[in-house]
Structures are given as C-alpha cells and as structure tokens.
Amino acid sequence: MHATLPLLLDTSFPPIRRARLETLQVNVGYVCNQSCLHCHVNAGPTRTEAMTRETADHVLGYLEASGAATLDITGGAPELNAQFRHLVRGARRRGARVIDRCNLTVLHEPGQEDLAAFLAAERVEIIASLPCYTEELVDRQRGKGVYEASIRAIAKLNALGYGREGSGLTLDLVYNPQGPSLPPPQAPLEADYKRILGEAFGIAFNRLYTLANMPIQRFGSTLVTRGEFNGYMDLLRAAHRDANLGSVMCRSLVSVDWQGYLYDCDFNQMLGLPLRVAGRARTHLTEVLGRDLEGNPIVVREHCYGCTAGQGSSCGGALGA
Fold first, then answer.
1. Tell me: the pLDDT tens digits for 237-254?
2. Which domain holds residue 282?
3. DSSP character for 295?
4. How far apart are alpha carbons 71 and 68 in whole angstroms?
5. CATH number, domain at 243?
6. Alpha carbon distances (Å) from 143 to 111, 186, 204, 222
7. Model-level pTM?
8. In principle, which of 82, 91, 127, 171 could form an S-S bond with 96, CB 3.0–4.6 Å?
C-alpha cells in the first residue's frame, strides 16, 4: 500500500485551534468483518489491534473528568471489540450520549445476535454506513452481499424502533462518493434515500450524512495507484471554504486510539499525527486528566481540505448548505 502522509506534509491549510471539548471519539481497534475500498482506517478481518479493559477504563475516567457530553465509538467494527459493551454501559451510567459507528452487517455476525437489542436498551445512537441506495454501488465499494445484509440489518433495527418517529432511537446513514469526487448536496440526497429505500423495502432512518473520502490509507493508496491523487487534492483545495473552519469536528472532538493516545481527529490518528501537548511526542489520555485543551493548536496537513471542501464534511455530515 502506498504511504500518503509524505504527500500531505507540505500544506497551506489555515491554522485552527481547539474550542470546548464536546465529544470523545474512541477507536477501539481495527478488526472488522469488512474491507471497504473507501476505508480510511484500513480495517479488515486480518487486523489484530484491539483495546484492552485497562484502556477502556482509562477512557471512561477521561470521559468523566473532561465533562465531554458524547462518547463516539468507532473502529473497525467497534462491536467486535470485547470492551465495546463495557464502554457503552459505563458511558451511559455517567449520563453521556453514546454513538455507535456501525457497518450494519456486524449485526449478523456470530455472537452478535443480541447486539441490536443491546443498543436499543442502552439508547445508543447508530450512525451506519450505506454509501448508496443501490445494490450495485454498495457491493462494488464494500463487497458482494453487503447491500442485502445491510437492508436486513436496518429492518431489524426498525423493528426495535430505530429510525421511527417518536421512538427516541436514532438511526442515521452515511453516504460516501464512489471515487475522487465531492459528495452531492446532503438534503436532496437524503430525500432520495428515504423515498427509494422506503418504497423498495419499507425501511426508515432519521438523517443522511454525506462524507468526503479522505486521501489517506486504502482510498489514498488507490488514488496514487490510479494516478488520481494529485487531481483529487486539487479538487479539495479549490473547493475549500473558510466558512467551514468554525464547524470542523476537530475543534470540539478528541480522538483516542486503541492504546489510549490522543489525536485531533480520527484521520490524524490514521496518519500517526498525534495531538500536540508541549514537551511530549505523543500524549496518553491519562496524562491530561483534568486538563483543559481549549485553545490548543490543531495539527493540520493537506488532507484537512477534505473537511472544508464544498459543503464541508465531518463526523456529523455536511457543515453548511
């Protein structure tokens, strides 16, 4: 796989600083039951990195001490990590909102038969990847049979109340472009998703998030192989909007890796660009318990244009109209 960090180091991206911490995003490991083309984590079934109970307890301690209102759990397929349910229960007991970044097909994995019911019982918000509403394009990006399994998983979640009005159980879907292009406007695409999936399968969801593909890891390497990397970066730079800088996720989010080290965002984590704290090459969350990171400079490189291009892109979808 081609390394993309050397291609991103020389940057003109505007300097930005942290605001008040609202979300603790935790990557519990890179084990996944899928190997998607657009995956910026390079996750898959052969990865072995996994968070331990000790580190999970450190995460819960930091969550409480920091006052962050949200625990956002990602992977890999985070549900395959042995600490996933421990983190969910611990965060909910502390009154935190919990988000599960789910690939949907994990609900069908052996040993996960009760996963959907667990998520519903703990009132976990689900953000699930479904990069298109057609079977052909989803299977092309994520693997044969993934679309059908994803539809069955959404139906299972709907039966528990997820995505249904008045249930209080949130199910949001995520769209990714198939190649080196910006995502289309979020609102009309969401309407298309709801109409087509509702008519074809009778399934429902709350919101659609449109995310740009990051030029790192598996997707970035594919761009290099195809000779499309520079062209995609030119597209991102040309579409940059200063208005999106105030809403990028790294200003109010801290990313934690499976070993407990801190990063400004999940993308920086995958590039090995740690959060800057004076005097440290990298910082473990136990080293900043009770420390206010507001005002801390954020590490930026060329890939950051992926978050500010066009309508903008973050873990919560488009940043602007």
1. 999 999 999 989 999 999
2. 5-308
3. T
4. 8
5. 3.20.20.70
6. 22, 25, 23, 16
7. 0.92
8. 91
